[in-house]
Specification:
By secondary structure, the protein is α/β, with parallel strands linked by helices. The protein is 37% helix and 15% strand. The chain is built from six helices and seven strands; from the N terminus they run E-E-E-E-H-H-E-H-E-H-H-E-H. The strands form three sheets. A three-stranded antiparallel β-sheet has the order 2-3-4. Strands 1-5 form a two-stranded parallel sheet. Strands 6-7 form a two-stranded parallel sheet. The chain is globular.
Length: 175
Amino acid sequence: MWYDFPKVGETTMKKKIIETPFGKEMILVSNGEHLIKSDFLYDETSMEVDVEIPLGEDDVLLDAAEQLEAYFAGRKEAFDLPLLVTGTAFQKKVWDVLQAIPYGEVLTYKEIARRAGSPKGFRAAGGACRANHFAIIVPCHRVLSASGAYTGYAGDKTFMKERLLDFESKEKRLF
């Protein structure tokens, strides 16, 4: 279920920084009722974006951190968190398709577009992946180009897509 993003000043937001096994920390942002963001902190610039949001904890942040830690430990393959998003109807369809991709598997942007109801909308599907505010939780890292290339993940951060897919591939082979 997708929720509409609140207007600035309507909620009290908090953020939590968590460690990951991928060499980058993650930021989680909550309004106390919904998770608003999960993203990797690649550099100082990515940390400055949410600088006005205070560090803190609430039930949503604690649950998100716990579920991500279980994912990192190989004990969790999908997430059950209240997500608050903004997006077009098509973007929300794409994000639903992303959440249905099984752990350790991949689809192409073309297939994502087809499943979202727009067979020729692979570029728009890529745009929806770029607009995704929930790294790992809404797994846009499980989407590859038609050639199988690791493209389009967090701009030029395709190394993280490769790490995540390698991690999921190895975890899947263990079971």
